[in-house]
Each structure stands twice: as C-alpha cells, then as structure tokens.
Design brief:
- This protein is of the alpha/beta class.
- It folds into two domains: 4-138, Response regulator (Rossmann fold, 3-Layer(aba) Sandwich); 144-211, Arc Repressor Mutant, subunit A, CATH 1.10.10.10.
- The chain is built from eleven helices and six strands.
- It has a six-stranded parallel sheet, with helices on both faces.
- Helix 3 (64-74) links the parallel strand 3 and strand 4 (79-84).
- The protein is elongated and about 50 Å long.
- The relative contact order is 0.11.
- One of its GO terms (biological process) is regulation of DNA-templated transcription.
- InterPro entries: CheY-like_superfamily, NreC/VraR/RcsB-like_REC, Sig_transdc_resp-reg_C-effctor, Sig_transdc_resp-reg_receiver, Tscrpt_reg_LuxR_C, WalR-like.
- Residues 147-212 form the HTH luxR-type domain.
- Residues 5-121 form the Response regulatory domain.
Length: 214
C-alpha cells in the first residue's frame, strides 16, 4: 500500500527532525521532505508528490499562511495541517481561510499528530478542541457581509443544517434538533459543501460567518 506522503515545514531544526523521526515510525506515513521556510514548502510540493503538509505559521520570508494559500491554489488535492505553539494564535483563522485543513499545537503527542495526518488526508478537518470556541469567536467578530448569492442556492433545510453545523453540532445532534435521520443530515451536509464549493465542514462554517448568514 502506498503511504501518505508528508512534507514537514518548520524553521526550527529540532522540531523538524522530531516530527520526521516520529512520522517515520509509521509504515503508512512517508516524509518526503523537511524544509525550513514557506517558500521551500511550496517548492517541495512542486517537486514531489505530496499528500499532506505539516506547516508552521511563523517562518522567515514566506510564512505558513502565504505558503498554504499558494499550495492549496496550485495543488487542491494537497491538505495542509498547521502547527502552532499556541492554540489561541491570532493567525489561525487566516490560515484556515487560506485553505488549511486544520491545526495542531506543537505539544500534541506524536501518535495524535500521526492520526491527524491520516484524518486530514481523508478530507476531514482537525481543530484543537481548546481553540474551537476561540476560533468561532474570531469569526463572529469579523465584519459581516450580506448573504452571498450561494446562500440563495441552498434550500431552507440546507440553511438550517448549515446554521447548526456553524454552532458546532454533530450530525446526530442536528438530526435530533431538526427531526431528521442522521443519514439524511449527512446528505444535506454533502449538498451544502458542494453548493458552497468548500472542502469540509470547517470551511463551511468559515464561509457562513464570512458571509453574515449565521
């Protein structure tokens, strides 16, 4: 079986090396490059076939946010997982807007980092539980714009589901609230993602707050 190919981008050599060694212990993960800047991460993604990038935010020159935006624009199939020292980093929301699939703090245990790489590779979002509330508070404080035309493309039920997703509800909780089967909720969520053109639930939430619909 082909392993998940990972690029590690961090300007601290100790962290790069530790992550590379830790990920190398897993048969299904392969570190194809360890780099010390955002520009080098972009180049690594151009040079290698890459599935996931573990990306530090604060790096000299091209930082992690700019690199994430470049990588996800050029290679939509590549998932970026942000690494940060603090779970309340003010740049996290900008990184998610740039296309990152989530973030982890640098004190996350190695096994959890490996599990997170697998999850973002599957298309899921990874967000530090401690920072989820703070992240949504940042989104709420952003100046709201009027509902985008895409909002009009959603059915009434899909809007209800999006609002519930934005509140952090699970599919089971949404089903109970709206009196829907969980499989029906999953269908509505998939329709919302498709119509909004976003890759996952997390980015649907960002879209909803950005466009002032919740």
């Amino acid at each position: 079986m082909t392993g998940i190919r990972v690029v590690v981008a961090d300007d601290q050599e100790l962290i790069r090396s530790a992550l590379g060694i830790m990920l190398g212990l897993h048969d299904d993960l392969e570190v194809v490059a360890e780099v010390d800047s955002g520009s080098a991460a972009v180049e690594a993604c151009r040079k290698h076939r890459v599935d996931v990038v573990l990306m530090d935010i604060r790096m000299p020159g091209v930082d992690g946010i700019a690199a994430t935006e470049l990588i996800t624009a050029e290679h939509p199939e590549i998932r970026v997982l942000i690494l940060t020292t603090f779970d309340l980093d003010e740049n996290l929301f900008a990184a998610l807007r740039a296309g990152a699939g989530g973030f982890l703090t640098k004190d996350t245990p190695g096994e959890e980092v490996a599990a997170a790489v697998r999850e973002v590779h599957k298309g899921h979002s990874i967000v530090s539980p401690r920072a989820t509330r703070s992240l949504l508070e940042v989104a709420k404080r952003a100046a709201p714009r009027g509902p985008a035309p895409l909002w009009e493309a959603l059915t009434g039920r899909e809007r209800d589901v999006l609002a519930a997703v934005a509140r952090g509800s699970s599919n089971a909780e949404i089903g109970a609230e709206l009196h829907l089967a969980e499989t029906t909720v999953k269908t509505h969520v998939a329709a919302v993602l498709r119509k909004l053109g976003v890759r996952d639930r997390l980015h649907a939430v960002i879209w909803a707050y950005d466009n002032g619909v919740v």
